[in-house]
């Protein structure tokens, strides 16, 4: 990979010689292999490889981006000519530029353990996918399968700037999933489970994934609609991370700079209950979104976004930081054909002190959610409405399955009264424990 890093360093140097005041180049290459097994037979096999090169140039305060799928240096002069010509005619952007917090030097090693050296073959993936589906089909009540899947991927990211930064890191992924149906006719219910990890040794057992998918599907049979009204709602960890996703959107530096976030005036104030923290940690070892530097070459570090309930930081890249008069937080994400933008990495909420069982024990009537649909969320006002499915809570215990209803509220109020359990597990990249909110509107029967 050192040859490819040198390649984009040469591309950046050539761009500055051709008239760019500053330049950066990114090369993303990847390999993926995936299989699907259905009813015990291999149904799908897919392998892909890609190389994508992006070049961003600056002419004064004007900027342009071009990209290509070719790594042949013979085409670089044309790529540079296009980029510089475009930059000279686009409108000025006084906030554009390379990030002044970028590292300087070559960075090709890290301690985040993001690469599993063993690449599985088709036979190993097929066996993994088959084991997941077989375990799911063995659950009493499961009547059909949409398949078991397994996959492997590797991505290599190389970034170089005209300010002297050049870096490379790679990441692997192993995944397994199962999706099955329970019941028959119009009463069929579908559910799934999955896991994805950087290292194969950390991946959940395929049979466990399959059993979970089958058990979930059977448990959803014969759902009813809950009554319409206001009642406590408990979010399973499978969906509670969506609330954290809405929070991340609201504290994204680009939204704050545009003035389109309902939290834009809340820096330094309490937005979550005392004891609750929200952290983004791009340095967590063997984690799916970890990286040693961000999309602008800024060194990554853990960042406390909400501490003891108080909002402490926006999620910033270089441009949004300049708009707000603040330094980048090292959270620039980007692709070869797009400019950097603020993006969280390994985001999680913690601080809960009670078990999930204790969290629902005093609920006489409420709703437990484990699936959500749609996304009617107003980022400017915080108004929230989503379709959902799950179970009724009756006298502190889960009861009959429910479906075809919506929940509604306002995120500002929801965040303020949020209660968290102590069952946080790092699995999805954006992770939260079981969460309870006491006063949401249910629109059902």
UniProtKB/TrEMBL annotation:
Region ranges (Disordered): 320-349
The Metalloprotease TldD/E central domain, residue ranges: 118-221
Gene source species: Endosaccharibacter trunci
Record-stated family: Belongs to the peptidase U62 family.
Domain of life: Bacteria
UniProt domain Metalloprotease TldD/E C-terminal: residue ranges: 228-444
Protein name as catalogued: TldD/PmbA family protein
Any matching Pfam family: PmbA_TldD_1st
Domain spans labelled Metalloprotease TldD/E N-terminal: 23-87
């Amino acid at each position: 990979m050192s040859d490819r890093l040198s390649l984009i360093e040469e591309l950046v140097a050539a761009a500055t010689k051709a008239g760019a005041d500053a330049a950066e180049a990114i090369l993303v290459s990847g390999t993926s292999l995936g299989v699907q097994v259905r009813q015990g037979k291999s149904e799908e096999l897919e392998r892909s490889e890609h190389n994508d090169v992006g070049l961003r140039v600056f002419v004064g305060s004007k900027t342009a981006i071009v990209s290509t799928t070719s790594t042949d240096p013979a085409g670089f002069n044309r790529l540079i000519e296009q980029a510089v010509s475009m930059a000279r005619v686009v409108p000025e952007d006084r906030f554009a530029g390379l990030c002044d917090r970028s590292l300087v030097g070559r960075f090709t090693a890290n301690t985040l353990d993001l690469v599993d050296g063993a690449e599985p073959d088709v036979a190993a993936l097929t066996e993994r996918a088959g084991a997941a589906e077989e375990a799911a089909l063995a659950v009493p009540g499961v009547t059909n399968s949409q398949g078991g899947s397994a996959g492997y991927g590797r991505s290599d990211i190389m970034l170089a700037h005209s300010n002297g930064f050049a870096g490379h890191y790679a990441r692997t992924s192993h995944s397994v999933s199962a999706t099955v149906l329970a019941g028959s006719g119009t009463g069929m219910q579908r559910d799934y489970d999955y896991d994805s990890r950087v290292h194969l040794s950390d991946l959940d057992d395929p049979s466990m994934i399959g059993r979970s998918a089958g058990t979930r599907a059977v448990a959803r049979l014969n759902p009813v609609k809950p009554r319409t009204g206001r009642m406590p709602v408990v979010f399973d960890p499978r969906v509670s991370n969506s609330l954290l996703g809405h929070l991340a959107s609201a504290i994204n530096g680009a939204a704050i700079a545009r003035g389109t976030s309902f939290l834009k005036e809340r820096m330094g104030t309490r937005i979550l209950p005392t004891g609750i923290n929200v952290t983004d940690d791009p340095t967590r070892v063997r984690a799916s979104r970890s990286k040693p530097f961000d999309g602008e070459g800024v060194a990554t570090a853990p960042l406390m976004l909400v501490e003891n309930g108080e909002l402490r930081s926006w999620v910033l890249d270089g441009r949004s930081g300049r708009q707000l008069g603040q330094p980048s937080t090292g959270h620039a994400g980007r692709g070869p054909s797009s400019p950097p933008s603020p993006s969280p990495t390994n985001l999680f909420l913690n601080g809960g002190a009670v078990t999930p069982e204790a969290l629902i024990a005093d609920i006489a009537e409420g709703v437990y959610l484990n699936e959500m649909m749609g996304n009617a969320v107003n980022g400017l006002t915080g108004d929230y409405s989503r379709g959902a499915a799950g179970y009724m809570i009756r006298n502190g215990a889960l009861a009959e399955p429910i479906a075809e209803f919506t929940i509604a509220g306002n995120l500002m109020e929801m965040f303020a009264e949020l209660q968290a359990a102590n069952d946080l597990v790092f699995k999805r990249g954006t992770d939260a424990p079981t969460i309870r909110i006491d006063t949401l509107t249910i629109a059902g029967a």
